[in-house]
């Protein structure tokens, strides 16, 4: 199942990703239209969809990516994980963490899958990420049960203004990664059962057509289940909560010399079995 958000309303996406239909309409008003309400009733939505006859050709609209929002546009909580790919830890010159490094990206940075990225400074960097959306409340969840609390997965970018992020004496990770538009996600949420191998998903990023990141979630230091288990051991995770799971090697700030985004650059982020994001960099006015 694929679920998205358009103009503040939850939508279903056809299996071939060519059409969307308003979920409230398709379900006769049973679910939605608010995406948060959909995640709050996620188990019921999944059961309904398993037997629903959704007529996309008759009642759906063509997919317009520019009309879509982040799949969970107003989560109660947002978690972001640093240093969570082995290859990224190596390029950063650090040692593997013993526990997840956690910060947040504020919801004001959320954006849909395509659009302009306003450069907030001269050191804006890219970070392709797999994003998890929670579908069932989780507290003290065991690793082996963690996938059952995941509604689905989507594509994300953790854009970062490195100067702000690393300003001392204490780094400002959350602030430097939360300028408007710095958390695009989408184009839709894909349930884990749709993926050939949910633990080894290819992830890539290009800038102006040049591949800058190419890896797999098999490189994760802390897997999706491990993250859900760890976070839920500290606090309750709620339906619709969002987890940015970290980025692989290839970020601009780790290059010699560093490479940061400039006006006119086109950043495309792709995760196998889910879809792609596309942002065009523009200068702030």
Account of the 3D structure:
Belongs to the FAH family. Keywords: Hydrolase, Metal-binding. One of its GO terms (molecular function) is hydrolase activity. Residues 78-279 form the Fumarylacetoacetase-like C-terminal domain. It holds the Pfam family FAA_hydrolase. The protein is an alpha+beta fold and 285 residues long. It folds into 2 domains: 2-63, no CATH class; 69-283, Fumarylacetoacetate hydrolase, domain 2, CATH 3.90.850. Helix content is 17%, strand content 32%. The chain is built from 8 helices and 19 strands. Strands 1, 2, 3, 4, 5, 6, 7, 8, 11, 12, 14 and 17 form a 12-stranded mixed β-sheet that branches. The protein is globular, with a radius of gyration of 18 Å. The protein starts with a strand and ends with a strand.
Keywords summarizing the entry:
single chain, 285 residues, alpha+beta, Fumarylacetoacetate hydrolase, domain 2, 2 domains, twelve-stranded mixed β-sheet, five-stranded mixed β-sheet, 32% strand, metal-binding
Q: Name the shape in a single word.
A: globular
Q: What is the level 1 CATH name of the largest domain?
A: Alpha Beta
CATH architecture of the largest domain: Alpha-Beta Complex
Total number of strands:
19
Helix segment tally: 8
Our estimate of the beta-strand percent is: 25-35%
Number of domains: 2
Task: Write the element-wise H/E pattern from the N-terminal end onward.
Answer: EEEHHHHEEEHEEEEEEEHHEEEHEEE
Helix content: 10-25%
Taking the alpha carbons of the first and last residues, their distance comes to: 40 Å
Instruction: Specify the biggest β-sheet.
Output: 12 strands, mixed
Coarse structural class: alpha+beta
CATH topology of the largest domain: Fumarylacetoacetate hydrolase, domain 2
Mean pLDDT across residues: 96
What is the H level of CATH, i.e. the homologous superfamily of the largest domain?
Fumarylacetoacetase-like, C-terminal domain
Rg calculated over all Cα atoms: 18 Å
Regions with little confidence, pLDDT below 50 for 5+ residues: none
